[in-house]
Write a sequence for this structure.
């Protein structure tokens, strides 16, 4: 079955928030700017990236995860020039941010 056909039969995710509060939108803008050398992020327009958070029942928690990833990414890539290595570090951070607890997210390290 093609991806297009599969997409047509998949249930749509519920949209929990029509719009994000300005404070959260501003916070996400800062996170987005900090992660601009990550291809996964910079290939998306900021509005499209932020819209994903409208589909989360807990967008603040989701933002906290991305903030943690931005902090860790900056720490772990400091002094590294190789973009492929930076990409590997980001992928590792994505893996570290996911677990089997409710909503697929564990408590983040302090």
């Amino acid at each position: 079955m093609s991806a297009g056909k599969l997409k047509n039969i998949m249930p749509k995710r519920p949209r929990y928030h029509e719009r994000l509060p300005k404070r959260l939108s501003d916070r996400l803008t800062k996170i987005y700017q900090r992660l601009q050398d990550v291809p996964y992020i910079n290939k998306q327009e900021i509005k499209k990236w932020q819209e994903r958070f409208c589909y989360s029942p807990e967008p603040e928690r989701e933002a906290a995860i991305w903030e943690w990833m931005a902090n860790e990414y900056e720490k772990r890539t400091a002094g590294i020039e190789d973009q492929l290595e930076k990409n590997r570090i980001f992928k590792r951070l994505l893996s570290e941010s996911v677990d089997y607890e409710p909503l697929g997210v564990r408590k983040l390290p302090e």
In short: The CA atoms of residues 96 and 103 lie 14 Å apart. Residues 59-77 form the longest helix (19 residues). The chain has one domain: 20-104.
